[in-house]
Amino acid sequence: MAKEYKLSPERLKELQEELNYLKTVREKEVAELIKEARSFGDLSENSEYDEAKNEQGKLYSRIAQVEEILSNYVVIEEEEEGGEYVRLGSTVTVLDKEFNEELTYKIVGSQEADPMNGAISEDSPFGRALLGKNAGDDVTVDAPGGMVEYKLLKVER
Predict the structure, then answer these.
(1) What confidence tens digit (pLDDT) does each residue in 38-83 have?
(2) Cα 60 to Cα 93: distance, rounded to the nearest angstrom
(3) Of 40, 77, 109, 125, whose CB neighbour count within 10 A is largest?
């Protein structure tokens, strides 16, 4: 069974636009590069041709990757009702008990994860530990560096 990708409506639109760009504009640009490189003569010693073909391979790989996501996605809908527990789309504020530091994260699908900018995947150890919890709950995360304890301070939609 194919992997199911959870996407926000915004991320879905971004991927659809990216695929359109790759198949129209970028594909023509790469074809031009190959055509130009061929005009330089002997292909066996033509580094421009090799580079253009590598670029074409990367392009087709990315197109296949985006098409795979777009053929197996589920849109994450923002639910207004249903309690204040952590779920996809929730923004959480936690207290790191070890460093006594407040941190805020948004729980997102794996395709949107960007930990450096506060977007944590639901598939990560931290995301899995938070799912279903309520404000006030203690959360223990089995992280690669050992167990880390947090206090869930706030859950927002």
Answers:
(1) 888 777 778 889 999 999 999 999 999 999 999 998 887 765 555 6
(2) 40
(3) 109
b/e string for 99-122 if b means 16 or more Cβ within 10 A?
A: eeeeeebbbbbebbbeeeeebbbb
Residue-level pLDDT at 14 = 92
Token pair, residue 58, equals 């990367």
Is the separation of the CB atoms in 8 and 119 below 8 Å?
no
Chain-wide mean pLDDT for the chain? Answer: 89
Residue 133, classed as helix, strand or coil, is coil
Q: In which residue are the tokens 């490189």 written? A: 37
d(CA 60, CA 6): 23
CA-nearest of 104, 107, 71 to 86 is 107
7: Cβ–Cβ under 8 A, 6 or more apart, which residues?
15, 69, 73, 74, 75, 76, 109, 111, 112
- Other C-beta atoms lying within 10 Å of the C-beta of residue 7: 21
Residues in the chain: 157
**Residue 2's CB: how many other CB atoms inside 10 A?**
7
Contact 149, 140 (CB under 8 A): yes
| pLDDT tens-digit series, residues 96-107 | 988 999 999 999
